[in-house]
Amino acid sequence: MILLTGSSGFVGKNLKEYLRSSTIYDVSRDELNNINSDILLNSGSIVHLAGKAHDLQRVSNFKEYYDINFEITRKLYDQFLVSEMSKFVYISSVKAVSDKISGILDETTLPNPQTHYGKSKLLAEQYIQSQALPKGKSYYILRPCMIHGPGNKGNLNLLYQVVKSGLPYPLAAFENKRSFLSVKNLSFVIHELITQNNIQSGIYHVADDQALATNEVVRILSSALGKSPRLWKVSPKIIRFIAKVGDKLKMPLTTERLDKLTESYIVSNEKLKQALNKPLPLSSAAGLQLTAKSFVNS
Length: 298
What we know:
Layout lengths: L1 E4 L4 H9 L5 E4 L1 H5 L11 E4 L13 H21 L4 E5 L12 E2 L10 H15 L7 E7 L1 E3 L6 H11 L14 E3 H13 L6 E5 L7 H11 L11 H14 L5 H8 L3 E2 L2 H7 L7 H14 L1
Parallel strand pairs: 1-2, 1-3, 3-4, 4-6, 5-10, 6-9, 7-8
Helix pairs in contact: 1-6, 3-4, 7-11, 8-9
């Protein structure tokens, strides 16, 4: 039995499809807001996906991050500790560690989040780790990087729309490497954590095996559309000026979105793979190809 929060979201819908052979109990928003022992099952696992996502437009009340990402997680975890359920899987984020990194991000990196989103996720992580864990119970804090897959509406979808329109990709002069995470690989990881019985509690970073340059992502998206990639190497100085104008005029290309598309953000998944003792089912390129095909079909 799996108690699942956030089942109506992008990850939740894909996870339910992946776990369709399992018995799943969806926790509604009302139940989450009024958590009590009645919603917990006699046995099984909790997969806690529900949370307030990072607001790139910065129009949210910052208190909502702490009310939703921290307080609700704290209350749910407290109920888990006194229940008969055995495993708690919490979906945090690499942003609980850092918004920008140099080198490779792994579990030894000291957290220093700069946003309310990241800070609220880190508070939830710290609370889970600080509680005494009864015998027979396990917790898994997963820090995924940029997740993509069917139904994804983030920056990857924006990049796809650029490729689909036939417009050239003007950021080819930026050199970067970025980790991605196929929602299918994330679903595989969650399934393994709730079915294997010898994986140690702790924090695990979740990413596909290979980090990719954005130029390579454009090539993959172009291939899915049967197009030749159009990569333009416009001066980064000019592009950054346009992005600053976009900040003021609320144009599609803003400084933050530019950074998302061109910065390097490499996440190590070695600790996780060693714990699972299994390879991830999809390579980075194969996962992106599936996502691109889902964009085409939709």
